TrEMBL record:
Residue span(s) of domain Electron transfer flavoprotein alpha/beta-subunit N-terminal: 4-183
Alphabetical list of PANTHER family matching this protein: ELECTRON TRANSFER FLAVOPROTEIN ALPHA, ELECTRON TRANSFER FLAVOPROTEIN SUBUNIT ALPHA, MITOCHONDRIAL
Summary of the function given for this chain in its UniProt record: The electron transfer flavoprotein serves as a specific electron acceptor for other dehydrogenases. It transfers the electrons to the main respiratory chain via ETF-ubiquinone oxidoreductase (ETF dehydrogenase).
UniProt name for this protein: Electron transfer flavoprotein subunit alpha/FixB family protein
Keyword Transport: yes
Amino acid sequence: MAEVLVYVDHVDGAVRKPTLELLTLARRVGEPVAVALGNGAGDTAAALAEHGAVKVLTHEAAEYADYLVVPKVDALQAAVEAVSPAAVLVPSSAEGKEIAARLALRLGSGVITDAVDLEAGDEGPVATQSVFAASFTTKSRVSKGTPVITVKPNSAAVEAAPAAGAVEALSVSFSAQATGTKITGRTPRESTGRPELTEAAIVVSGGRGVNGAENFAIIEALADSLGAAVGASRAAVDAGWYPHTNQVGQTGKSVSPQLYVANGISGAIQHRAGMQTSKTIVAVNKDPEAPIFDLVDYGVVGDLFEVVPQLTEEIKTRKG
Ligand code: FAD
């Protein structure tokens, strides 16, 4: 069976959930071989083996932290040359997409970004994408070179599938470009204690209907009762009620959670573009004609200032 490379997104050895989801998808198209780079790369092996990695290629070097993405591209290229995989899977983060694009260019391969599903095909892996503001679902495959595919978070379930996970050192020699852009400082974002928006299994969002920055406390309370991330429409962001980093949509972030709760959001096409692939969509809106209701699995026609606090209380009570 052909091997499939999975790029491991980890923080000091702690593997992030989107990578475990990639292992689930990788198993459909071949034998997953994980590539873990940088500080703590070796510590990722146990988690990766538990989720189906037959092999874990590791390489630790200061360059991965000190420079932008090129050292990682050098390492992935070395892994492709060593393994000759059927495909390379990369999480669809901003960094992941840059790595994928650069790698595909190096390999002379086609690249597919933001896949939401992956299956085996007669002529290679077939990726599903949601395109044109989620108006269409397309299936495509790379027809040139080693397919490089980025996959959106929450596109697959995390499944335990114990495998050997044998750790092997990857031999990497960095290119001249690798040290071309040095990171001169890092400012950690203030932590809210909530999950990262693009990775969260549940997202609770507020729009113009929230009617003020202070009222976002209602949205945050519902999010916290569910262990969710908080999103916002552009109208709420433009009004200065919530940071741009939380904007969902065409000019914000794309989310694909198991559950998306839209409060006081009309459902404009540009907002849909960022959330339409969510598995279950719930909306609270006082206008029964709001376009968001065309999209939802469950809709509540009502005033969010009445509905949302009741919902929060009910969830807290049920959770005990
Ligand atoms: P509105 O459309 O004003 O809707 C507010 C809703 O709240 C209404 O449906 C109303 O019935 C409801 N409401 C009001 N009060 C209450 C209440 N008390 N209880 C319950 N419901 C209530 N938008 C994005 O979101 N993300 C983007 O990334 C984005 N990118 C864009 C890019 C471009 C190039 C352009 C042109 C636009 C973009 N927009 C984007 C803007 C988009 O077109 C909409 O203007 C925006 O999404 C509207 O936000 P909203 O739904 O919060 O506000």
